[in-house]
TrEMBL record, chain A:
Domain Exoribonuclease phosphorolytic: 32-166, 198-275
Metal-binding is among the record's keywords: no
The entry's keywords: Cytoplasm, Exosome
Subcellular location: Cytoplasm; Nucleus, Nucleolus
Keyword Cytoplasm tagged: yes
SUPFAM superfamilies assigned: Ribonuclease PH domain 2-like (SSF55666), Ribosomal protein S5 domain 2-like (SSF54211)
Family: Belongs to the RNase PH family.
Chief localisation class: cytoplasm
Listed name of the protein: Ribosomal RNA-processing protein 42
Pfam families reported for this sequence: RNase_PH (PF01138), RNase_PH_C (PF03725)
Top-level taxonomic group: Eukaryota
From TrEMBL, chain B:
Membrane-spanning ranges: none
Name recorded for this polypeptide: Exoribonuclease phosphorolytic domain-containing protein
Domain Exoribonuclease phosphorolytic: 21-150
Family: Belongs to the RNase PH family.
Listed InterPro entries: ExoRNase_PH_dom1, ExoRNase_PH_dom2_sf, PNPase/RNase_PH_dom_sf, Ribosomal_Su5_D2-typ_SF, RNase_PH
Pfam families per record: RNase_PH (PF01138)
CDD domains named in the record: RNase_PH_RRP41
Highest taxon of source: Eukaryota
Length: 309, 250
């Protein structure tokens, strides 16, 4: 992580802690740090969320646009991820400094959402082969405190859960062209089905064990980290029709590695299993939090805390 | 002049304000831990974050013995405007805004105290609804105070426009996006209200010289009003006794 210096002694201290399953901040190896989440914070966006995971601060805004679907997938919509590393996080990101990190995160997200079992792009279709919705998912990194990928994926899922897409009121066919009339009423809109949207879990190899949610100091100690994208479970987000669906196994949508080191196949397998456990509990917690927030805000205009809390 | 529509016959503006009223300002100092100073400011629906790093050693090429180098960057989140922006920074408008920020803030900072040093000021617009530059200056001012950098005075910025009511000219304070888009004149002033001096003045569209003075004095009044709000925020923050930087992690 940028601008952090650790002495060898400090590194050994962290390493020993991980080996005994008791980390320097008192967590075990599969515990996350406390998080704060708020949705609907940006009024110019169709959906938005702000997530603060310890010192990592992420703001996600989703904007919608009408586009023409790809010829090979006429009934699918489009997703585009854009990550912006704000210079607020560290002066190194000034100008184009954060572009490399931004690209690696947006590619990771794109890959994780690419699978049809992760996110159903058919719900973004308006007219097969003619028109579809394109979602611009803009991610703004305001502060880096380690574990960016996990925080970004959580914030994106929350923002998508919050996204409203206006209904189409009327469509006029004029030759080959379609003229759409969208509903102006902000409440006359549909929500997206994001239950199966993937979450990314970063597993940091320290010594021969892996930890989830590494702090910036722990990231500094590890030579390699593994990023696993795992699909979510709909039952946490839509408990009403839970009886209709059977519990699904979480599926791996992407695996990536970061860093100069290497891992043995056995460690890799263990790490992925550890990631599945972590992703499941994370998914459940996120679903609960989002449903609770939605429950609280039925019928009333939400009072936004934003950054003022 | 597209004046008449901006004020109703009762003398109220499109968003219900009176001509001399500011939008609601809410702000908070010390929102982040990593920067040396940070602030969040909301002016109506315009929301801005500012972070300050430094003073630290300046790079060889920039460093001067006369005073500190003030480095500013203004960027807008891609979802901050009604239409999606393709680039958060680097376009012409944000580069111009960065220069204007530097102009206004250099005037406020006691630059002579830190030779061969540099102060980085980053302003991030999260939501733009008119007057993003003004909100940026105000937020940066708070962030500088949070960082503990000696200032001559608060740097406050405010915009003003011009409308007509019953044939009489009536300047409007703190212009919102709708009023900006209506095409009237927008006068942006950054000033140090404590000393009464103007650090930056910018005007778009045209305005008759006869009315310049009233519009300017209304904008200056706005700066003084904003200073009172910022000062109260700083005092409240200090009374609270700690900022997030004081919370030690690890």
């Amino acid at each position: 992580m940028a601008g952090l210096l650790l002495s060898p002694t400090e590194k050994v201290f962290i390493l020993h802690g991980v080996q005994d399953d008791y980390r320097s901040d008192g967590r075990s190896n599969i515990d996350y740090r406390p998080m704060e989440l708020e949705t609907d914070v940006v009024s110019h966006a169709s959906g938005s969320a702000r997530l603060r995971l310890a010192n990592t601060d992420i703001l996600v805004g989703v904007k919608t646009e009408i586009d023409v679907p790809k010829p090979d997938k006429p009934d699918c919509g489009k997703l585009e991820f854009f990550v912006d590393c704000s210079a607020n996080a560290t002066p190194e990101f000034e100008g184009r400094g954060g572009e490399q990190l931004a690209n690696s995160i947006s590619n990771m997200m794109q890959k994780a959402y690419h699978s049809s079992q992760a996110f159903n792009l058919k719900q973004l279709c308006i007219f097969e082969g003619k028109q579809c919705w394109k979602l611009y998912i803009d991610i703004l990194i305001l502060e880096c405190g380690g574990n960016l990928c996990d925080a970004v994926s959580l914030a994106v899922k929350a923002a998508l859960f919050n996204t409203r897409i206006p209904f189409v009121k009327a469509a006029l066919m004029d030759g080959g062209n379609i003229d759409l009339q969208l509903s102006d009423d902000p409440y006359d809109s549909k929500l997206l089905d994001v239950g199966s949207a993937p979450l990314l879990v970063t597993l940091c190899k320290i010594g021969d064990k892996c930890v989830v949610d590494p702090s910036a100091e722990e990231e500094n100690c590890s030579v390699i980290s593994l990023i696993v994208g795992l699909t979510g479970d709909r039952k946490y987000y839509y408990p009403k029709d839970a009886d209709k669906q059977q519990s699904v196994e979480s599926k791996c949508t992407t695996i990536g590695m970061n860093g100069p080191g290497s891992v043995a196949p056995k460690t890799l397998k263990d790490a992925i299993n550890q990631g599945i456990v972590a992703a499941k509990s994370l998914d459940e917690a996120l679903g609960q939090a989002l449903l609770k927030e939605r429950q609280q805000n039925i019928g009333i205009k939400k009072h936004s805390y934003g950054f003022l809390k | 002049m597209p004046g008449p529509d901006l004020l109703s016959s009762q003398g109220l503006r499109l968003d219900g304000r009176r001509p001399n009223e500011l939008r609601r300002i809410r702000c908070k100092l010390g929102v982040f831990t990593q920067p040396d100073g940070s602030a969040y400011l909301e002016q109506g629906n315009t929301k801005v974050l500012a972070a300050v790093y430094g003073p630290h050693q300046a790079s060889k090429s920039k460093s001067t013995t006369e005073g500190v180098v003030v480095n500013c960057q203004y960027s807008m989140a891609t979802f901050s405007t009604g239409e999606r922006k393709n680039r958060p920074r680097g376009d012409r408008k944000s580069q111009e805004m960065s220069l204007h920020l530097r102009q206004a803030l250099t005037a406020a900072i006691k630059t002579e105290l830190y030779p061969r040093s540099q102060i980085d000021i980053y302003v991030e617009v999260l939501q733009a609804d008119g007057g993003a530059y003004c909100a940026g200056v105000n937020a940066a001012s708070l962030a500088l105070i949070d960082a503990g950098i000696p200032l001559r005075a608060y740097a406050c910025a405010c915009s003003a426009s011009m409308a007509w009511r019953n044939g009489e000219p009536e300047p409007l304070l703190d212009v919102g996006h709708v009023e900006e888009a209506a095409g009237g004149v927008v006068l942006t002033v950054a000033s140090l209200p404590n000393t009464g001096s103007i650090a930056l003045l910018e005007m778009s569209h045209r305005l008759h010289m006869d009315y310049f003075k009233v519009v300017l004095s209304r904008a200056m009044q706005g700066c003084r009003d904003i200073e009172i709000i910022l000062d109260k925020a700083v005092r409240d923050h200090l009374a609270e006794g700690w900022t997030k930087q004081d919370v030690v992690t690890i």
